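Summary: Need help interpreting a holo structure output

Steps to reproduce:
1. Submit the protein chain below together with the SMILES for flavin mononucleotide.
2. Request a joint structure prediction with the ligand placed.
3. Inspect the structure token block that comes back.

Expected: a single structure record containing both the chain and the bound molecule.
Actual: see attached output.

Input attached:
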Amino acid sequence: MSSNRRVQPPHVVSIADFRPLARKRLPKAVFDYLDGGADGEMTLRENCRAFDDIMFRPRCAVAFSECGLKTNVLGYELSFPAMLAPVGYSRLMHPGGEVSAAAAAGKAGTGYILSTISGHPMEKVRAASTGPVFYQLYLMGGRTAAEAAIERAKAVGMSGLVVTIDTPVAGLRERDFRNGIKELMGTNPFAMVPFLPDVLSRPGWLVRFLKDGGVPKLANVVVPGKGAMEMMDVAAALAASAVKWEGAIVVKGVLPGEDARRAVDEGAAAVSVSNHGGRQLDGVRPSIRALPEVVAAVKDQIEVWMDGGVRRGSDIVKALCLGARAVLCGRAYAYALSAAGEAGVSRALQILRTDVDRTVRLLGCASVSALDRSYVELPAGWE
Ligand SMILES: Cc1cc2nc3c(=O)[nH]c(=O)nc-3n(C[C@H](O)[C@H](O)[C@H](O)COP(=O)(O)O)c2cc1C
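--- attached output ---
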């Protein structure tokens, strides 16, 4: 079956349908890296579940011939208010990786954020999309490598910089330890042996992976005198990349209002309310629950984005009702990329876009920019 047919109905009707397809195609180690969260995965689960606490308040018998879905982020027009979040190791999910995701985002008229932990060079990724492409920065490889990456991002015409602040160390992703991700990404063949049956159980993935050259280098982290950094396991990568406050552009990973204020004061142009998809500190609030506090704290001075748990267009609409300018989707497209490359990501974006359109119409609202608190009912104590 072609990649495109595989992601059409009846096989794929909602984003949830991509998950089993991804599971079938990826070795367990890669699937669990994508799917899993930190510690007991409480925040991971809550990110999705908390959307269910919000109820809609529609206005009926109102009909609009057209529903406005366009929005604007940092001066860039988006065809609808969802962009693709930075997802590390995308090239291990599918050889097209970051290039395929960026291309699908561009075709859908929306933005893509390229992770530092990426296998394709940013020049290729930028060229693949007609829409905005942002570069997400981790300070790996030292200050000089990070400065060079920023210069390179400017030179290739990246639309802005996203600095992720919630990773002073990596969260304990228990599934990764059990699956031997560190050993599989390392160079000691003996250490790999116990974990090889998993990789061998997905021959289709293995053939594509080997044809693509095996574990790619970090094409966007170039260390002076050494060249592109080797791909390493995420714990080692993040341990080398703690950031401190210092004039960023988009600050991703903000939860309390105080940090949002700090971002405003430091001159950020936007914040993304995020707990890294439940992959860092387990036990923090779900992103949608943290959103109202951040919106109140920034007082319209800068844009507020959010990410975490978005699986349906109705989730996007709820976030907009609570004051987000746009949302970022992580796993929603990463499952689709794993299942069917660019065709998968395009289909995921199509599902989300038509969901948003239908939800806004059912709410009796003329456009996404007219959404506000009056279209939702929040549980007691949420403010
Ligand atoms: C597999 C995976 C890899 C990720 N890699 C990065 C990364 O390299 N940089 C970053 O800032 N966030 C990273 N994130 C976090 C996402 O950008 C985003 O915050 C999160 O996925 C949102 O939650 P969701 O997956 O429920 O949509 C990653 C998330 C996943 C699932």
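--- end attachment ---

Reviewer comment: The longest strand covers residues 218-223. The pocket of flavin mononucleotide is lined by residues 33-34, 47, 85-88, 115, 117, 136, 164, 252, 274, 276-277, 279, 307-310, 329-332, 334 (CB under 6 Å).
Status: needs-info
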